[in-house]
Design goal:
Chain lengths: 243, 384
């Protein structure tokens, strides 16, 4: 909250940067980017990361809880899929606006919307991962005297990791993209400079810079998750090396 | 570190090497089903013996096995392990004291071989050093080379290697009882025979009480000290030593199940050294040209293999030779036939009537009718 509040105004003052390319309205102006990094782009990027991190963390915790319940009680899967699919299909702009009335035009509304879009893919992937654990492995765990919790923590969740991380990758990338329209109800994230640029006629530097930052953030996060999975699942690589 | 003190702390699982298992009128009835899956099943497995549950599919042999470690709750009767009812035990604790091996092995794919073997000791909270020492011991016991396979994952092993690791994992906490559900069923025939032999050798060392489930009567004959043949509805058709079941099947069902070739199967249970061989005097031909007609075979050859050799070679008799190369006696078709025809009467007695040499008396001693063939069978297996 503090981070977001400290961001300050993001509407650039062009008069201060009356360098050649701004004056001549070139599509992309590198000097503008460096000149406005500290005041506009960096705060927007930080807010964006914060929005995404919060949404994916909460979404992951919720989905994990729901998936564990559905893993134990099969009947729980259908209603959960139904609700999360419904949430997923609500047009995002509409959902943001709908939340303003009950919650207010604030961070809470933004996060509720972002979180609800992560649930479907995370829930499905976690549950699929848990269910894909081979029956004989669970039978062996049971037969050797593991408790349910031990089997879950020591066998099922580790084996479900590839599916879980695959779900996280999708959730992170889509949330990074989706968070660019948070600006419609709440003044934060990389959506703000994009929105400003859209209303400004031919000068598109802000839009391009913020867009590039969004894409870059998505690629970086996705790569980080891939590396995380590789580090956490050494047995998968062993399989391809060995017979 | 004081291993003895630790062993004491871990309780009975570490101090008792094998325990007697007794099933008392055990029943299992699933709700909503008329016929019970298991009906009043009673048998006792003496400590340190291998009991094979064998029967057609649907006879409930796997169910019966899983009742023992309470993976399936029993609905009637009692199961006594080492003098204590399993029903009085916490199921998790009970299972940590019972080795468990299944056909698909069920190794944990995400854990290394060592971590897999250490599963139960870890659950039991053994200190790290003790676990490491035990794992090192098991590498040797299952005949696998640590330097080649240490740090590997199950997916990097062959089927046979995985099965060996599965057995090591089951033995890790030195349980008094081992449950094995078709452990070699998914292995190709050549490797299966090798794994069976290895397991019998291992069993000679560890002397666990073993309940072994299979649908293969040949495997049952080879592996079992005793065989429980189950029929539909989980009832015992016959419970006896392999030799006794082959010699006198209790009824048509058993006779059909063990096969029309049960006579030949009986021959596979004994070695030439156990037979009352014909006197060897002057048997070795002086004329080298005649040698191929009288093949020399080791005393440890099974009677079944000797029969096969007699039927397929031009020879009418075989010279049984001991390790030192000395001729111990002669084997003929007639001798094998007589052994079978005399209904398995201890060969010592039959041999005596024929005035045979001291060879038989020496190798068989003077077994009683009751235990003679069982001993013979045990020896045949241990030499396998």
């Amino acid at each position: 909250m503090k981070l977001l509040a400290a961001a300050g105004p993001v509407i650039p003052e062009y008069a201060k940067h009356s360098v050649a390319c701004v004056v001549h309205n070139h599509t992309f102006c590198w000097e503008w980017v460096t000149g406005n990094w500290a005041a506009v782009l960096w705060p927007a990027l930080r807010q964006h990361i914060y929005l995404v991190l919060l949404a994916v963390s909460i979404g992951f915790a919720l989905s994990m809880a729901l998936a564990l319940i559905a893993h134990r009680y099969r009947w729980f899967e259908r209603p959960t899929i139904l609700v999360t699919t419904f949430l997923y299909t609500i047009p995002s702009l509409a959902l943001f606006e709908l939340l303003v009335a009950p919650v207010g035009a604030n961070l809470y509304a933004a996060e509720i919307a972002l979180v609800s879009y992560t649930l479907l893919v995370l829930f499905r992937n976690i549950l699929t991962g848990l269910r894909a654990v081979p029956g004989e492995v669970l039978d062996a765990a049971d037969g050797m005297g593991m408790t349910r919790t031990q089997a879950l923590l020591q066998v099922e969740l580790p084996l479900a990791l590839p599916a879980i991380i695959a779900g996280l990758r999708i959730a992170v990338v889509t949330t990074i993209a989706l968070a660019t329209i948070v600006y419609t109800i709440y003044d934060a994230g990389l959506g703000v400079p994009i929105h400003v640029a859209l209303g400004e006629g031919p000068f598109k530097t802000e839009l391009i810079a913020a867009g590039a930052l969004t894409i870059g953030l998505a690629v970086l996060c996705d790569g980080a998750l891939v590396l995380t999975q590789r580090a956490l699942t050494p047995w998968l690589r062993a399989r391809s090396q060995g017979g | 570190m004081n291993i003895a003190a630790d062993a004491h702390k871990q309780g009975s699982s570490s101090t008792v090497r094998a325990a007697e298992l007794e099933l008392r009128e055990v029943s299992k009835r699933y709700p909503g089903q008329q016929a019970p899956a298991i009906a009043k099943l009673s048998f006792t497995v003496p400590a340190g013996e291998v009991c094979v549950l064998v029967g057609p599919s649907g006879s409930g042999k796997t169910t019966a096995m899983r009742l023992i470690n309470r993976m399936i709750p029993i609905t009637g009767g009692d199961i006594i392990l080492g003098g204590r009812s399993v029903l009085d035990r916490d199921p998790r604790e009970l299972r940590r004291e019972i080795g468990y091996v299944i056909q698909q092995v069920g190794l944990f794919p995400h854990r290394t071989i060592e971590q897999n073997i250490a599963t139960v000791p870890t659950l039991l909270g053994w200190p790290k050093a003790r676990i490491a020492a035990r794992v090192a011991e098991l590498w040797d016991l299952i005949g696998m080379r640590k330097d080649e396979l240490s740090g590997r994952y199950p997916a990097q092993l062959s089927g046979g290697q995985r099965q060996r690791v599965g057995v090591a994992r089951a033995l890790a906490a030195d349980p008094p009882l081992l449950l094995m559900d078709e452990p070699f069923g998914a292995i190709d025939p050549i490797n299966r025979a090798r794994l069976q032999d290895e397991f019998l050798r291992l069993q000679q060392q560890v002397r666990k009480t073993v309940v072994f489930v299979t649908h293969d009567i040949d495997e049952a004959i080879k592996m079992g000290d005793r065989i429980a043949i189950l029929r539909d509805g989980g009832a015992i058709a016959q419970y006896d030593t392999p030799a006794e079941i082959l010699r006198s099947p209790a009824d048509d069902f058993v006779a059909q199940f063990v096969g029309a070739d049960r006579g030949i199967k009986r021959l596979s249970l004994i070695q030439l050294g156990d037979l009352a061989l014909l006197p060897p005097a002057g048997a070795r031909p002086q004329d080298a040209a005649a040698a191929p007609l009288v093949p020399e075979v080791p005393l440890t050859m099974s009677a079944r293999d000797a029969l096969s050799l007699l039927l397929t070679s031009r020879a009418t008799r075989l010279l049984a030779v001991d390790d030192a190369g000395g001729v111990r006696g002669i084997v003929t078709l007639e001798l094998l036939h007589r052994w079978l025809a005399e209904d398995g009467t201890p060969a010592g007695a039959a041999g005596g009537a024929d005035g045979a040499s001291a060879v038989s008396a020496e190798s068989l001693g003077a077994p009683s009718h009751e235990t003679g063939e069982a001993d013979v069978a045990a020896r045949a297996r241990s030499g396998a």
